[in-house]
Every structure is written in C-alpha cells, then in structure tokens.
Write the structure tokens for this entry.
Amino acid sequence: MSKIDRISSCDDCPIRHNAVCAECDAAELAMLERSKSYMTIPAGATIASAGEPLTHLSSIITGCATMSRTLEDGRRQTVGLLLPSNFIGRPGRECSIYDVEAASEVTLCRFERRTFERMVQDTPHIAARLLMMTLDELDVAREWAVVLGRMTAREKVAAFFVSLARRQAQTDGGRQPARTTMLSLPLSREAIADHLGLTIETTSRQITALRKAGLIETPSLRAIRIPDFEKLALEAGEDDDGGIVA
Amino acid sequence: MSKIDRISSCDDCPIRHNAVCAECDAAELAMLERSKSYMTIPAGATIASAGEPLTHLSSIITGCATMSRTLEDGRRQTVGLLLPSNFIGRPGRECSIYDVEAASEVTLCRFERRTFERMVQDTPHIAARLLMMTLDELDVAREWAVVLGRMTAREKVAAFFVSLARRQAQTDGGRQPARTTMLSLPLSREAIADHLGLTIETTSRQITALRKAGLIETPSLRAIRIPDFEKLALEAGEDDDGGIVA
DNA sequence: GAGGCGCATTGATCCACGTCAAGTCAGTGC
DNA sequence: GCACTGACTTGACGTGGATCAATGCGCCTC
C-alpha cells in the first residue's frame, strides 16, 4: 500500500506510469518523492536561460512555456512548445541550451537534478518511460521541421492551430480533437511568429486570411474556434488520412 | 570472459557502452547478440518507407542515409541525416513515419525488433544509453529548427557544412574539426536542398557564392575543403564561442 | 567521336514574405 | 471623457529565394 500511495501522488508528474511504477524499488521512488516540489511561474517570466545551470528538472503541470534560441542579431526561433506533461531540462546535462519562458502562468513539478539523474540510471522503468517521452518529442520536432522547411505562411499558421488543437485534445484526455473545436491560444502573435519562422505581420495577415476563408473564427485575441477541424487540417498540407504530429 | 566477448563484438553497434554492458545480464546480452545481423545497402536504395512495418531496428555502421517526408504535391523535407552510430526505427513503434534512403552505400547492424524492445524494457543500462542517444538527436533536431526557421540561404548552406564537419570529426574520434578540414559530401545537391528547405538552384548558387568568398573549396562535386573552419562557422550565424549542434 | 543521360550551374523573371510605416483597438489610469 | 500604452492589424513597397529555362559537364554506350 505504501508503494501505491507514492505512485498515485505521481499522477500529475511526468513519471505518471502507474502500472510500471509498481515494479520499481519503493526506496528509490521514495527518494524521488522527497526531492519533488511544486512551483508556480507568472506569465512572461523566464524559467531557464541558455547556458545557465539548472538545479532542477521539471515537468509542466499546467500552462504553456516556450523554448527558444535568440541569435545575436535578434532573430529568434522557438524550437518547442512546452505543454502539460512536457519536460524542462534533460538528465545528463547541467544547463538548458535554450531559453525557456512561461507563455502563460505555469505550474511546475520539480525534481532535484542529481536525485533524478540517479533514478534514471538505476530504475529501468523510469528510463524506459523517459525514453518513450523523448522519442515522442523527437517526432514532434522532426514533424515541425517539415513545417518550417517546406510550408507556406498560410500552411504554417494552419499547421500550428491543428497541432495545438491535437495537443490540447490529448491533454484533455480525448484522442482526436472534435470536429468543431475551441482552442485557447496561450501565445502572443509574436511568440507564434517565432515558432513558425515568420514575422508577426505575416502571421497576423494569415490569421486574417484563414478567418476570411471561414476556416477559423477569432472570438478573442487569445482564442480560436475551429468550425471544421478536418478542413483546417487539409489547409495545413495533410492528406486526408490525417497527420502524425502530436 | 564470455561476457567480455559478447560486449566487444558490440563495439560497432549503438549499444557500444562497454563499461555499462559489463553490468548487464549476460543472458540478455546473448539474446541481443543472437538477433543481430549485418546488412549492406547500395547507394540510392530505400531502407524503410513511411508507414511500412519494420521487422528490424538498425544502427548505421558506415555510410549515410536520409530520413525524409514527401508531401503529396512533391515537396520534400529531410528531417534527419543518419550517420554512423545513428539509429533507424524506434522501440515502441512498428513503422518508421519517414522514408529512409541510403545516400551512399550503407552498412547496417540490425536487431530483431521484438528482441530489442524486450531488452529496452528489461535492461536498465540499455534504456539509459538509448535515452542519452535520443536526447542528443532531439538537440540536433531542435538546432536544425533554428536553421530552417530563421537562417538565410547562405547561412543554411554554411551551417550544413559546419554541422557535417562536426559530425564527421566526431565519428573520426576527434572532438572538434581541424581548422582546415576536408569534408566528404555523401549527398547530392538535391538531397542537400531538401535538408535545408531550399531549392536545388538556390543551394547551388550559395555553394558558388561561398566558394567565391573563399570560405570553401570544391575539389570535386562530392568533396568540400574548408580552409578556415572558424570563419565558416561565423558565416553560419554562430557567435564566436562556437555552436552546439552535433 | 557522336549522341544521350543525369547531375550541376547559371541566367532571367516572378512572387511570397519581409520591411517599414500607419492605423486600430482594448485596457488602464487620471 | 481623454490621454497613454502595448498588442494587433493593415497598407505600400522592396527583396530573397522560387520558378522557368538554358547551358555546361562528366560519364556511359555505341
């Protein structure tokens, strides 16, 4: 029972692998539990800066953060959108190589880095679980390369909404987004542009164009309604059998 | 001794983690060894097609392969360049979601998928090792997003040569490429263009431009000489303290 | 050596997106 | 109500890279 207790307190954490945890060493899990702490970050705040050592690894419980690189001349590219269950920092490296910023208010579940790294070394199921999570992130990153490298501005914006809708649906427990979906936009236009490799003006124009084409509605600046998800997905360059991006 | 034997025969494989392997269960390693086989693929051949089941996971021993997605209208984006030690396929998924093609002649070390997956589940050090490899690939993919999203054609081409020089140096045992480096180009101009999100014409023009600027020399179509690596890296948008891409 | 074939390069033109510069609009403070 | 601010939108124009079209060049076959 002590085992199960500890595991259930893990429910909101990255290592949310109930069945698997049951096979882990209770002493090790207890250690991880002890090093765990929660933290709330206000919107706009910096969570980590490129090159600065991280004392903790954390996973996002609620909210949205961006991971970006800024070149010396000011050009910025967001390389990842961090949503609930995503990880900040990686075992085996002291620093983040990207800037991580809270796009909305973010709550984190933090683990002391040393402890966490020891767990990964010693506990097979945590390493295996983390491996699956990382492989999924790798797929997302590669899928995004197709968007960045080969899509038009209009397709990029559509792809962004489609991808965000999929990820929000997944977080909310559903598999696929409903045909008609309401989307909360945790990012400013500038942050969207940085994610898409576009300027803020082009992004804005394409959002307008999609609205005029009836593919999206914009009830407010930070919300998007998608009347027909399939149609939007088509606009994002997906063939009819649906895409793969998470 | 039997343990050590098995491990040393792993030297050219992804699971090349001698010290770590010594702690693994000999029976499990033996199983992995039994499922191992080598294979040579001619240049230009398809190694895997998106959506088709893979019976084997493999790692590249020699040569170069590309991982790409082709959209219905023919646009193609290469999402990863596979060089020695890189992995093809992933545990936990039956198919590759990308087309994998041999750019040059490729030799593979293949593992039967089922066996390999069981190993990942059961053997902590293999999962941990695979996790580190995957995290590195994730960094490479994210770094490439910066290139695709925010760099000019000239910077993209320079970044490609710089990145390739780093990876070839790494494979050859050195840490950083020498100041003056000879680079073998395993890709056609078209494949380079697909990797950079450019057309073949723009790619060719930028190679010419870099040559005229004295940043590279082109002794043959499939070779590049870099007289001053640092200078080329600067052209690729890196600040002076060097970049992070593998 | 002539022809053909597959790549790569080069040239001329076009257009999608960047740039620069005004608006517009919601929110906030007085 | 009115000014102020910051985020967003819209407009006019310029440009980097795409597109279309030759041309060059190694390599193979005959």
User: Anything to note?
Assistant: Residues 152-153, 198-199, 201-202, 205, 221 of chain B lie near DNA strand D (CB under 10 Å from a C1'). The longest helix of chain B spans residues 124-150. Residues 1-12, 16-22 of chain B have pLDDT under 50 and may be disordered. Residues 151-235 of chain B form a domain with the Arc Repressor Mutant, subunit A fold (CATH 1.10.10.10).
